[in-house]
Design goal:
- This protein is mostly helical and 178 residues long.
- The chain has a single domain (21-171), classed as Four Helix Bundle (Hemerythrin (Met), subunit A).
- The protein contains five helices and two strands; from the N terminus they run H-H-H-H-E-E-H.
- It has a two-stranded antiparallel ribbon with strand order 1-2.
- It is globular.
Length: 178
Amino acid sequence: MTWTAPPVERTVHLGSLGTVPERQMLEGWLAWHRETLLAKCAGLEPEQLAMTTVEPSTLTLLGLVRHMAEIERWWFRRSFAGEVAIGDVFTGPEDGNEGLDGVDPAHAAQAFERFRAEVRLCDAAATGRDLDETFLSSGGVPLSLRWVHVAVIQQYARHNGHADLLRERTDGATGDCG
């Protein structure tokens, strides 16, 4: 039996975030975007996840999953939590594309598990830390955990738009796909 990207059970409904405290809102939006990316992949086989469908772009759904694992790792763990020695999930620093390139359908299931594992580790890095806690960016600019949440949510928002197009071009599915 061929592996397919699993369905996603929504844990966050945006309507429930309208009046919650800031921390809960940021974490809720982040969870919603994570689930949205995975929902765009749900039900697809590895070869479909690795297809480039919007030429001339080389973006793939699998590449986006890998990329967002890199983005989360960079901001929550390496930058904010100071876990510099952990390195990259999928690429080396000279790559510059943070997991977007070099996708291999044979490793799709492992990439999805790495993504989920990275999300858990990133959540753990932020748990119990104050949103106002700061660190110095690689450029020497002080940034807060709040800023990291907003930056990562912004990355997901942009890339989930890409995922919408990629999924529609793959099999015609629109909306939440699971």
